[in-house]
Amino acid sequence: MQVKDIMDDENFGTIIYKAGMNEVAEEMLRTGFSSVLIIDEKNKLTGIISGYDLRKEIAKEETEKDQETTAADIMTPREKLLTLNPESYITEAVELFSENRINQIPVVKDEYPVGLLNIRPTLDYYQKKEKKARLRVEELEEFADIIDNLHEALIVFDKDKNLRMVNKAARELNLKDDDKLGNINNLLDSVPRLKPIVEEVLALGETKKMIEVPEINGKNYVSNCVPLKEDDGEIQGVLQTFSDVTQLKKLQIELTKANNELDKAFALTLPNYKVENKLRSTPEYKDVFDSKTGNITITDKIADGGYRHVINALKVAADLHEKGVMNLVGIDKDVLVRAIIFHDIGKTQPNLEKGTVVNPCKIFEDGKNHAARSAEFAKNFYDQEEDLVSLIYYHHHKEEELPASFPGHLLPSFRLFKIIDGCSAGITRRDAVVSFDVQGTKVTIHEQNTHPMFNLTKTIDLFSGSWWSQALKNKD
Ligand SMILES: [Fe+2]
Ligand SMILES: [Fe+2]
């Protein structure tokens, strides 16, 4: 709740600083308020006169009175005035009222008076809220037994960071030396990385999910931090949970290890250190495309992208092999594997840093150029056969761009190679998850990734070249 929600912004009185005492009295009578705000010619606040100030002036002996007394003479001037902003929180107003003997506070925006806040509605609101907050804690306490027996560790603390609840699982975490409620700072100090998170949730009122917590007693935890809010949105505290993910973490490490070993095994298929070196030193980039400008923003640099691309392509080929696609006439496993290894060997990439915005058509070389170069290298340095050289040479051509001289018997391999190359690019550059179904001459590709444009399922007939998207698949 903010000051603007309970201030009086309609009936408060204002009067020019040069007004006489009669006018001040009339304004006070008109509004019924015990104060009147004093403004200058530009309507900016210059002071305040209370009923007491006015009575004091009127009570002076006639002889003492200055005939010319104006509002400016008896007002409390602006520099001595406490004011509030319409956006200030009520708690701030309560503090001002309790620390100063005042009953009304002017509310100003850019020095223009926009309202007057009275002590009575402010205190009424605050007391009601306190009562409600107490009820909330009591409500929570009703569930103490259930909360205490939750498998998840749970702690609750209020907006002043006082710890209000710790369940059994949280106590077992040994986050704190004892189970008595105390100041949250002690608790947070023992897990320093939590402190800024808790403070951020209190300040912004937004939930933080799946935060990795530093190891506690040799175990790994993730934490969720949820703000506890009043109906009006004001934050009353934070509820934090901890889930044990030790086993999950172990599995993750084992999976990464297994993946690395698989990579190493695939790397053994590379013919020599020059090929491996070339692939490892060719970067690939993750990017975001802006359809309005046609530019891309580099979001990540994969320093060994060429190597990762080939390894991923080999994994895709292994998957398709397992599904039986290499049993087809016209598909040669050995040719495909070598085509994968050599197809981008002649690729050259610009050196771009994260955050760079570029026009991809201008900065990246046309794929057909490196395809021709790679084919030349495969033929002349690695003595590869004609069919394989043709596959590499045309791997950036669309099928309709192939020359009449392209050998027809290579078309199934050409189509399959383009699937493998494209899927590997998705896995390497767009974190895609790809799976396949093979039925006879038809290969169905299921690709899922964060980019909606590439979230698709399509089927291609390797022999005829016909393809169907998911929506048309039933017509097949
Ligand atoms: Fe390529
Ligand atoms: Fe490629």
Describe the protein in words:
The protein contains 18 helices and 18 strands. The protein is an alpha+beta fold and 476 residues long. A five-stranded antiparallel sheet has the order 8-7-11-10-9, with helices on both faces. Strands 1-2-3-4 form a four-stranded mixed sheet. The protein has a four-stranded antiparallel sheet with strand order 15-16-17-18, with helices on one face. Strand 1, helix 2 and strand 2 form a beta-alpha-beta unit. The longest helix is centred in the first third of the chain and has 24 residues. The chain binds fe (ii) ion (2 copies). The site of one fe (ii) ion has 4 residues, from loops.
List keywords for this structure.
single chain; 476 residues; alpha+beta; CBS-domain; Beta-Lactamase; four-stranded mixed β-sheet; 18 helices; 22% strand; disordered C terminus; binds fe (ii) ion
- Taken from the alpha-carbon principal axes, the silhouette is elongated
Low-confidence stretches: 177-182, 471-476
- Strand order in the sheet with the most strands: 8-7-11-10-9
Distance between the ends:
62 Å
Q: Mind describing the biggest β-sheet?
A: 5 strands, antiparallel
Radius of gyration: 37 Å
Total helical elements: 18
Integer average pLDDT: 85
Q: How many domains make up the coordinates? A: 3
Q: Which ligands does the model contain, each kind named once?
A: fe (ii) ion
